[in-house]
């Protein structure tokens, strides 16, 4: 699971640092205010959906609902960078940012639900820190560095294409989780990290 989110965030990092430059240069009539409103629409859509959706997922037994919600969010995340390639009007940008807000709400509400229930007791701090550093910090740094270099050499469009391709490849890793989804919350996913056991008291 950590590997999936690492590549998703990294792929977003390809174009995130230069997102405003792309919009103001390639979308007719767009200004920095346009970028601000677009990001606000994303945040509003995500905020309005994620919390009630998370409550809904928590209220249902089993993890199949979490898995399918994760897949829906992941599919929208794949479409997002490809959709940015087609943006030519301001309303296109507002629409696609609202859509990815809904997608991220689905993806993260399901992801947090699955991750939190399978954090190993005794290593909570380590695993949540690994989640934070690995999937939210290092991945974004690597993506930003790669995207900056590629953008200088090949231009903006290659960044969106590469982001979409990496995102699509990452989605397929999620299907390896499905055999572990058996309708219960206790034995559905393998542990993310297991602390080494000490010597047996009898040994």
Number of helices: 7
CATH architecture: Up-down Bundle
Tally of strands? 0
Total domains? 1
What is the general shape?
globular
Instruction: Work out the helicity level.
Output: over 70%
- Topology pattern, helix = H, strand = E: HHHHHHH
* CATH domain topology: Growth Hormone, Chain: A
Structural class: mainly alpha
What is the CATH first-level class name?
Mainly Alpha
Give the oligomeric state of the chains in this entry, treating copies of one chain as homo and distinct chains as hetero. Answer: single chain
Distance between the termini: 36 Å
Kindly provide the radius of gyration, computed on alpha-carbon positions and rounded to a whole number of angstroms.
19 Å
Approximate strand percentage:
under 5%
Mean pLDDT: 83
CATH H-level superfamily title: MFS general substrate transporter like domains
Notes on the protein architecture:
By secondary structure, the chain is mainly α. It has one domain (2-176): Growth Hormone, Chain: A (Up-down Bundle). It has helices at residues 2-13, 19-26, 32-58, 64-85, 90-117, 124-154, 157-174. It is globular.
